[in-house]
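Sequence in, structure out. Go.
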Amino acid sequence: MKSSQPNGENPTSDDWAGARGEKWLAQLGRMEAMLAPVDAPLIELLALGGARRIADLACGGGGTTLAVAAASDPGAAVFGYDISPALVLFAQRRAAPADPAPVFAVGDSASLAVGVPFDRIVSRFGTMFFANPAVAFANIAGLLAPGGRFAFAVWGPPADNRWMAIVRETIGALIDLPPPPADAPGPMRYGEVEILLEMLNKVGFRHVEVQDWRGDLAIGGDLEPHAAARFALESMSVAQALSDRGPELIARATVALAQRFEQHWSNGGVRLPARVHLVHGTL
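Output:
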């Protein structure tokens, strides 16, 4: 019999600044291994040649920031900002050996202020969680120099991201999961990307376009099905609905999800199709 409770599927900025950010940190290596294929096409859209100041917003543990730094011109200054102190501290430590190292700091995209604007701004899977997106995107526009470029990665629709849909279906078979609110913070917020394009145009960005990336993602990297199921249930927002339901229900969900994942085991990983909107433009 299924039971009902708030699903925790829509983490707020406060969640990311605290417990949610720490949960992400605990899974960071596996998460970055899974999402790494999106970095190269996202960074390519930045056209980094000639950029002197570059910011990665909602940078998490800094993996994409370091990839941006590696692709930038010599002497470029690269900055990473995240609302989670735990993730920023980790990013600072991992970047320390780099020369020059990106500069990481705690910062909220809705209120971040800098003395000198950036030539490029990037965000990989961070912009979907803004509490007030109109305010946040307007502030980001103010952080970008005239003629500067931006590139944001957001998830496409659920139907094209089967790895997320399978997790939600599995949990939904055990407990009641109400449909997520259409415009609440959450991973699928801009699956219908026209909402985001309209908002970016309203706050002053120009030449806003979307280019889709499609490919298979390995769940948690090279994990076998049972380990991939544990990773998904420990890291995905929708799985927070199980977090205080006790070990028995979590164990049932893990077994059920592992059975689904076994059907997609290939080349040393659980591989499922994904679609990502790469939204880019200028100021």
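Check: The beta strands are 3-4, 53-57, 77-82, 103-106, 118-124, 144-155, 175-176, 206-218, 265-266, 269-282. Residues 247-262 form the longest helix (16 residues).
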